[in-house]
């Protein structure tokens, strides 16, 4: 056994334990009894303590110093393990365990506060989470930007300033397009009630249409849709609303994009440092292109209309063009996950600015709801009506995911680049989507993005796949063309 072999064996066990921790999180959000919350927080803290000890084990440093990579993949394995090792060494084990314990507890308190529309019940534990994440960020930053250090967990080699520059370039064109679209007559949306069981049945069918392997996954319901796991066990959740079946169906397609990435990673990378998506921005590029450029296309919605009518009977829209307009209807709303493509990035920009200010200490938790509501009214032109439509709508801050939100918009940027390349690679894409056949598109994405796992750096993945340096131009051009045509601009 060489030092490289010893390190890979140790990493495999660490990755396996990480998957177990992830399964505890999945269980907590889907089927765990409410009374188990306190015990679960201790379980999460215990396993995080074990994981942190392994990630910062001095033997890892010794193996890294002695290991000789056998090939390109081996060099990438060492790169990713070294990065995780150096970060883990900077964070005290007791702090890592306390973050896991507190965020597990905070998640349950958030869910109850959201149900009760009670911000005050959530703020004390959120204050604890923010303080802990500031402490973690400061340890990682070693005198640098706390927020940048946290972003590094989700989008390596990207800073808050990098993200702000992209957002500043996107905002003017997004705001102008939004104003022009909202000035036009709006198409009709769906009305009526849609059986939630039928929604789940159709969502599972659509998951398979987009290539989700149900022998290595499952679809459940949760308060906030998410994807969990990698390799041979990748689970997704969705949610239902009797008056809005699109919420369920497109949440499912979105999460299938995440799951397909994890299921599509080269099996040889399983339970290794390369065995999962390279960044959340690249992850979001998959979920967003599945959901939007494919799932909300005129071609695919023409097929989906037939499936909707088969599942629910008469839905009040018989014309495929009218149905396409309903799917892509630009409308006022509060919920990020239900936002149309045009306005989605504005939701992300709001969260990015608020959490960056929180981590810098320029905004305090006690003032967060007011800051959120003021910013929302400024950006969207109407007030937040209740906490579950405002500060309490997302799970992310309760579980300590600071630095995560901007990757959603980065994912849109990356998806724009990939979509341009996909259209060239599969010139008859629309004809296939019109038959409910996504296989050529999903196969191309698996080949150019998903199978590589973390072999390449995030922006390198997109550049190799799309043939261009990632930029905001393609997604803005796509949005202007799509909604310009839909609204006759």
Summarize this entry quickly.
By secondary structure, the protein is mostly helical. The chain is 64% helix and 3% strand.
What does this structure look like?
64% of the residues lie in helices and 3% in strands. It has 489 residues and is mostly helical. The longest helix has 28 residues, at 3-30. A three-stranded mixed beta sheet has the order 1-3-2. It is globular. The protein has helices at 3-30, 37-55, 58-66, 72-90, 93-116, 119-141, 146-151, 160-182, 196-209, 245-264, 280-294, 298-312, 320-327, 341-360, 368-380, 406-425, 429-433, 439-448, 458-466, 473-486; strands at residues 219-221, 227-230, 233-238. It has 20 helices and three strands. Its EC number is 3.4.17.19. Broad specificity carboxypetidase that releases amino acids sequentially from the C-terminus, including neutral, aromatic, polar and basic residues. Belongs to the peptidase M32 family. InterPro entries: Peptidase_M32_Taq.
